Amino acid sequence: MAVTVQPVSQQETAEKASKKLGAPQNKLVTGGLIVFAILTLYLALTQSIVQPLLLTIGLLLGYTLFHARFGFTSAFRRLMSVGNGQALRAHMVMLAAAVTLFAPILALGSTFFGGDVSGYVSPVGVSVVVGSFMFGIGMQLGGGCASGTLYAVGGGRTNMFITLLFFIVGSTVGAYHLSFWTDDTPSFGSISLATSTGLGYTGAWIVSLLIFAAVIAVTLIIDKKKNPPAMATLPTASGWKRIFRGSWPMMIAAVVLAVLNALTLLTRGQPWGITSAFALWGSKAAEAVGINVSSWDYWSGESAQALQTTIFADSTTVLNFGVILGAFIASAVGGLFKFTKVTVGNASASIIGGLLMGYGARLAFGCNIGAYFGGIASFSVHGYVWAVFALAGTFLALFLRPLFGLSVPKPKDTFC
């Protein structure tokens, strides 16, 4: 006998989810805005106009990441554990929008301010394979990827402060060891779909879109075969209030992130990145305790100047501060900022995960943002290699997570 199911309107769903939102934490929102204003003024007075602009872009990135809970770690875990490809399809939409915006920018080669533009095109070799595999394991243990770590810190997840600390440590050690991985292991060199193949940016754009479409088709086939659980509804408000309080549709967030990454490229001449700042912070700390960091190959040449100047002169650092502030304000507006409980299990996982991600990101020439998002958007083959081996690392991590008391989605679970 057929059963008729009464459909639930989007308005009713939003109203039901909005009950999970807390009252706006106005004091925290005000505090976050004051910090943002002070930092913007300081950057405007002491640095070039680029830095306050990047702080604003970073804030918008953090705001978007938190509102959509736009994850890379969870997207990979959902696919590998139960076959849910919904979040990965959002990644493909994000990447499709990004390559569409990046292609003309890279072809023209100029920023808003007349500077040179360059994408993230890095070598394809053993270092990327090992580094991305380590990163895939690390992000599943650490509780978040590079962007996820920053926006979770902004939202008050206490264990992510531990992840961030050891992310910095791992990235610093990776910087120290990087010359071995780049000089003494096999590599095919940098390969760009646009400039290394004769396709040009138009041809590379078409090929990229075909790859994204193929990934979407494969995930839909997997979805149909495995019939995975749906993603849980996140707390949200209804109507125009949803812009400020509650979750954003994942596909909308995907396009917004692509636009903001393109704005980053046009502002500073490079795409959005995160983890190079971690290596800088850690190296400055190491230098402060007497370690001769300037002797490392990683800090030779043009990069040596970063050690001699304030971290606020580093554009990636400014972006990172903006992401944390944006996530903090977004969580407070939704009444969701709170410090969480830390257990021995998740603290241990955060330490190991942070170390693996930090070290892996240096070997792989970036993280889920710099290598995966920025690399693929820049038409670099190393971005695709990163994705494949980060997925492999995720699969292995599914067997490691229970050792630390961390859950793994099961076929009958509904999860977010």
From TrEMBL:
GO terms for cellular component: plasma membrane. Keywords: Cell inner membrane, Cell membrane, Membrane, Transmembrane, Transmembrane helix, Transport. It is a multi-pass membrane protein. It is found in: Cell inner membrane. The chain crosses the membrane at residues 28-45, 51-72, 93-113, 133-153, 160-179, 199-222, 243-263, 318-337, 349-372, 384-404. It holds the Pfam family Sulf_transp. It comes from the Bacteria. InterPro entries: Sulf_transp_TsuA/YedE. Belongs to the TsuA/YedE (TC 9.B.102) family. This is Uncharacterized protein.
